[in-house]
Design goal:
Elements lengths: L5 H9 L5 H21 L5 H21 L3 H5 L2 H18 L1 E3 L2 E7 L2 E3 L1 H19 L6 H19 L4 H17 L4 H13 L1 H7 L3 H11 L10 H13 L10 H4 L11 H33 L4 H26 L16 H26 L3
Helix pairs in contact: 2-3, 2-14, 3-16, 5-6, 5-7, 6-7, 6-8, 6-15, 6-16, 7-8, 8-15, 12-14, 14-15, 15-16
EC number: 2.4.99.28
Keywords: Cell inner membrane, Cell membrane, Cell shape, Cell wall biogenesis/degradation, Glycosyltransferase, Membrane, Peptidoglycan synthesis, Transferase, Transmembrane, Transmembrane helix
Pathway: Cell wall biogenesis; peptidoglycan biosynthesis
Length: about 375
């Protein structure tokens, strides 16, 4: 195919800037999620249509970001961080309460969850901060990074949203790790965190959070209350067996036993209908995305690119791991969606932005390699 062929020109415009392996993985999950969401929503098209719109916008962002140089994206770190903090403060004073939690903000006709913005803004800001001191990093710079992390995390904890706060805080810690944080410090921090758990339990957790932890170890203590979610999701996963019951044939799903079946607990729907084999395939795609992201991080040419790529990759991994873990009954129930699968516009777009920035970093690597010849 010649360079002037129309198909070749279309490929160069729309596909070449993006990492083909990441793009293929995203397409696999997206196509699977359409079938899954249609089943989870009882054969209705409303959420499916909105999911399609969210994903179309996500792919537009993916393509657009892949064509922008990482240096230009880095200049957006401070505005994204400050904007996210301002929106979180807006939630404090003008937020919308749903089920006792004030996590959303109405801006005109839109309802957004500012904590989703901090998934992107926080690691970008911490990475830009470290890039500024690239050649002269000292121990006190890591303390400064903790301050950058602590402000939005504290605001999210006050909503209250412990699960999201921990995961967003972890994204900042990942940046610190990829910036060269000593393994000794990591080990000591983990030990101190474990030792402080009794104090955290007594003074740092709301009662509903304690209930979730107790329910994890004994969901049968309140089968129609706090334990209902875990019990029903584990029944669905177990009844799927090895091969699953087949698409649209999940009894737990279509008899409405699975709560939040299109959002937080959509993996239970998937496991019931596609079984263990389907679970393995989905996890394999997530693992492939993580491995590919870490390869991009390892091949990065600047500290900012390496830390952002590594943090975004590990953030996607953490959200997938936590969601699958809570639905399977090995982690407490928290409001964490399954990346690229669960229904939700803000969550979908935030993940697509992360992957788009990964592609931008990869594209910059490719241009750099080509310029050597």
């Amino acid at each position: 195919m010649t360079s002037n062929h129309p198909l070749k020109r279309l490929y160069d415009i729309f596909i070449a800037p993006m990492d083909r392996w990441l793009l293929l993985s995203i397409l696999i999950i997206y196509i699977m999620s359409l079938f899954l969401l249609y089943s989870a929503d009882g054969g209705q098209f409303f959420q499916l249509e909105k999911k399609t719109l969210h994903t179309f916008l996500g792919f537009m962002l993916l393509w657009g970001l892949s064509r922008i140089k990482p240096q230009m994206l880095a200049s957006l770190a401070l505005p994204a961080y400050i904007g996210g903090v301002i929106l979180l403060l807006g939630v404090e004073f003008f937020g919308v309460s749903v089920n006792g939690a004030k996590r959303w903000l109405d801006i005109g006709p839109l309802r957004i969850q500012p904590s989703e913005i901090m998934k992107i803004g926080l690691p970008m800001m911490v990475a830009a901060y470290f890039q500024r001191y690239d050649t002269e990093l000292r121990w006190y710079h890591y303390l400064g990074a903790l301050g950058i992390i602590g402000l939005p995390v504290g605001l999210i904890l006050d909503q209250p949203d412990l699960g999201t706060a921990v995961l967003i805080g972890a994204s900042g810690i990942f940046v610190m790790f990829f910036a060269g944080l000593s393994w000794r410090v990591v080990f000591v921090t983990i030990v101190l965190a474990v030792l402080s758990m009794p104090l955290m339990w007594e003074y740092g957790m709301h009662e509903y959070q304690r209930v979730r932890v107790r329910t994890l170890f004994n969901p049968a203590a309140d089968p129609l209350g706090a334990g209902y979610h875990i019990i029903q999701s584990m029944i669905a996963i177990g009844s799927g067996g090895v091969w699953g019951k087949g698409w649209l044939n999940g009894t737990q799903t279509h008899l409405d036993y699975i709560p939040e079946s299109t959002t937080d607990f959509i993996f239970a729907v998937y496991a019931e209908e596609f079984g263990l084999i389907g679970n393995i395939l989905l996890v394999a795609v997530y693992v492939f995305i993580v491995v590919r992201g870490l390869i991009i991080s390892a091949n990065s040419r600047t500290l900012y690119e390496r830390t952002v790529a590594g943090a975004f990759t590990m953030t996607v991994f953490c959200y997938a791991f936590v969601n699958i873990g809570m639905v399977s009954g090995i982690l407490p129930v928290v409001g964490v969606p399954l990346p690229l699968v669960s229904y939700g516009g803000t969550a979908t777009l935030s993940v697509m932005i992360m992957l788009g920035m990964l592609m931008s970093i990869h594209s910059n690597q490719t241009r750099g390699n080509q310029s050597k010849y």
